Amino acid sequence: MKYLKQFFIILIISFIGEVLNIILPLPIPASIYGMVLLFLLLFAGILKLEDIKDAGKFLIEIMPIMFIPAGVGLMSSWGVLKPVLVPVSVITIVSLVMVMAFGGRVTQFVIKHSKQGGFTENE
């Protein structure tokens, strides 16, 4: 029953993200709205990590399975993708490096500030 409650909370937040995507005329995906909303709820203490922790861990564990449909889609559209393979590959590699660099910098910032007492465990 605990898992159902946690999945329901995540589902409600995702639904609110979808509604925000329809209401707000910004070119932002609904999933981003949902993630920002979840972050704000956790940060403000309205939602506790324990309220979604187990369901979140489960979703992270099964994440590789979620890439199977995307891989099948790429294989089935190989004829369309083949002429633009080099530009798509370059864009993918550049964006991958940028995400890794930005993620590393943010992680270093958080670790540095947590060691200096800038963040606490309860925040």
How would you characterize the overall build of this protein?
The protein has about 120 residues and is mostly helical. The longest helix is centred in the last third of the chain and has 31 residues, at about 85-115. The protein starts with a helix and ends in an 8-residue tail after the last helix. Helix 1 crosses helix 2 and helix 1 (about 1-25) crosses helix 3 (about 55-60). About 75% of the residues lie in helices and about 0% in strands.
Topology diagram in text:
Layout: H1 2-23, H2 30-44, H3 53-61, H4 63-66, H5 68-76, H6 78-81, H7 85-115
Helix pairs in contact: 1-2, 1-3
Can you tag this structure with a few keywords?
123 residues; mainly alpha; 76% helix
In short:
The chain is mainly alpha-helical. Helix content is 76%, strand content 0%. The protein has helices spanning 2-23, 30-44, 53-61, 63-66, 68-76, 78-81, 85-115.
Largest sheet descriptor: none
Q: For the terminal residues, how far apart are their CA atoms?
A: 27 Å
What is the chain-wise order of helices and strands? HHHHHHH
Helix content range: over 70%
Mass-distribution shape: extended
Structural class, from secondary structure content? mainly alpha
Number of helices: 7
Average pLDDT figure: 90
